[in-house]
Amino acid sequence: MREVSVVYQDGMMGMVEPPILQRLINSDEIVKFQRSDGWVYPGIDPVRCLPRSSYQGIERRFS
């Protein structure tokens, strides 16, 4: 997997793999990460999230 550049809340920079990036975004541990088209700021810029399995309602997408 290709590593992604990130900037942590304390200003330190690092490189992480995509599954770790998702965890860092969810736990609000990073300020920004770099995509091929520039820096992305979670909470400001749109980011994809993994689906949450905690939804207990009726599945309506396939009806």
Span between N and C termini?
36 Å
Q: Say how many strands there are.
A: 4
Shape: elongated
- Lateral arrangement of strands in the main beta sheet: 2-1-3-4
Mind describing the biggest β-sheet?
4 strands, antiparallel
Q: Determine the structural class based on helices, strands and strand pairing.
A: alpha+beta
Summarize the amount of helix as a percent range: 10-25%
List the secondary-structure elements in sequence, H or E.
EEHEE
Mean pLDDT: 84
The percent range for strand residues is: 25-35%
Radius of gyration (Å): 14 Å
Uncertain runs are none
* Count of discrete alpha- or pi-helical segments spanning 4 or more residues: 1
List the helices and strands and how they pair.
Layout: E1 4-8, E2 13-16, H1 18-26, E3 30-35, E4 38-40
Antiparallel strand pairs: 1-2, 1-3, 3-4
Commentary on this structure:
This protein is an alpha+beta fold and 63 residues long. The protein has a domain at 4-40. Helix content is 14%, strand content 29%. It has 1 helix and 4 strands, in the order E-E-H-E-E. It has one helix at 18-26; strands at residues 4-8, 13-16, 30-35, 38-40. The protein has a 4-stranded antiparallel β-sheet. Strand 3 (30-35) and strand 4 form a beta hairpin. The radius of gyration is 14 Å and the shape is elongated.
